[in-house]
Amino acid sequence: MKKAFISLIICTLICITSCRSNTNAWIRINQLGYRINDIKVAVFISKKNLTLQSFKVIEVNSGEVVMTFKNVVKTESLEPFISCYRLPFSDLKKSGVYRIVAGNIVSPDFRIADDIYNTTADFLLNYMRQQRCGFNPYVKDSCHTQDGYEIYGKSGDSAHIDVTGGWHDAADYLQYVATSANAAYQMLFAYSENPASFGDKYMANGLPGADGIPDVLNESKWGLDWLIKMNPEPGVMFNQIADDRDHIGFRSPNNDSADYGKGHERPVYYCTGKPQGLFKYKNRTTGIASTAGKFASAFAKGSRVYKPLKPEFSKLLGNKAIAAFSYGLKNPGVCQTAPGTAPYFYEEDNWTDDMELAAIELFNLTGDSKYFDYAVEYGRKELVTPWIGSDTSRQYQWYHFVNMGHPGIAPQQKTRKEHWFASHR
Fold it and tell me: Domains in the chain, ordered, with CATH?
């Protein structure tokens, strides 16, 4: 999802809160808290020139000062702040609920405990369920059930295609393969790396209730089912639903009032490998491989993950992964999203990273060495993701900003070298 996604590797959540006694200064803490033996640091920032020499940590329940620290570190501030200090307190190793006081500035309360990250992976799935298209468990109603009609399609503009499902983009209701396939892949990757991190409290339709399947896999399948609709057969791919004509303000999904000229149907953009845009603005599409690679990596990872749970579904995903990758080989280049009435689209410029990830996932799925060779070949074409070292970036220019193919290749490369040396002794 555009602002959503979204990876499930838990990052430190930084909270910027209103100061209780001074609106010109704040103490930022880790919202989740700190584990007992973690490095613990808070940050003091102020819009005034202040000198800070110490701070206190107070136990919330008793109100007592448990430790006083004088190891504040003055750092360079960023606008609009004038003063900035790091507040290390790693020596505090007792579990409990605390707050920091620096001068007359008080932090939000936070916990120190070894269980602070428990259930956080599942917590992130709340957002995904909230964004569901089709049946939405938050409004307990269905939306966009008449999607959609083809744009640029082989069947001609306005031909109907059933693409209800998937996730809405963010605050609007656009839907993109680029972000949705990445979201599905990231959830599947997170589960495959650490399945014990996920629970089972929701059913496949997103409503509360255990069903014997980890919630993250129910959510991933919701996305994969939609991706199958957007890639209904080999050589047929759609890239997005709706365009910026959707930007007409906030409304609930089941009362969507966006008008695309065909009642409640929305346009579904067919992948042509050429620049698209219905009005005065056009994207700079050069091919289809970026989209094909995203389809293939999500399908291939899904095929491996669901094999013990849903063998037939796994087989379908595996076949679609192979076909999608093959289509990407035949259509190199980037497939950008399409603008509508404004010059707004995802300006993705790189695509070999998508094909690299797809190839290594297909190697992991099939064991066929040709996919490993493809992965290495594509990996060499983008050794470093281009945003590294760049001071500016256009909208989603190098999405998804991290090349998951590289770490996928690395352990396989080591194993293959070991086998080669063993066979040549």
Answer: 14-112 (2.60.40.10), 120-423 (1.50.10.10)
> Which amino acid is present at 185?
Y
DSSP 202: B
What is the rounded distance in angstroms from the CA atom of residue 302 to the CA atom of residue 356? 17
- Residue 20: the pLDDT is 43
How many C-beta atoms lie closer than 10 Å to residue 217's C-beta? 22
φ and ψ at residue 233, rounded to 5 degrees: -155, 160
Q: How far apart are alpha carbons 291 and 347 in whole angstroms?
A: 13
Cis? peptide before 144, omega within 30° of 0: no
Beta strands in 218-313 (DSSP E): 238-241, 267-270
SS3 233: strand
Q: Please report, as a single letter, which amino acid is at residue 156.
A: G
CA of 409: how far to CAs of 22, 319, 356, 364, 380, in Å? 51, 22, 9, 10, 11
User: What is the 8-class DSSP label of residue 208?
Assistant: B
Cis status, amide bond into 80, omega within 30 of 0: yes
Between CA 266 and CA 275, with CA 271 as vertex, the angle to 5 degrees is 100
Round the average pLDDT of the chain to a whole number and report it: 91
Average pLDDT of 185-190?
Answer: 97
Residue 391, pLDDT score: 86
| CA dihedral of residues 337, 340, 341, 343 (deg, nearest 10) | 10
What is the rounded average pLDDT of the residues 91-114? Answer: 96
Peptide bond into 148 cis (omega under 30): yes
Q: Do 346 and 395 contact (CB within 8 A), yes or no?
A: yes
Contact criterion met (CB below 8 Å) for 145 and 265: no
The order of strands in the sheet holding 267-270 is 149-151, 267-270, 238-241, 175-176
Return contacts of 67-72, CB within 8 angstroms, 24+ apart.
Answer: 67/91, 67/92, 72/44, 72/102
Q: Which amino acid is at 303?
A: S
Backbone conformation region of residue 264, classed left if phi is above 0, alpha if psi is from -120 to 50, else beta:
alpha
Q: Which of 71-75, 248-252, 370-374, 413-417 has the lowest mean pLDDT?
A: 413-417
* Neighbour tally for 288: CB within 10 Å: 26
pLDDT at site 16: 37
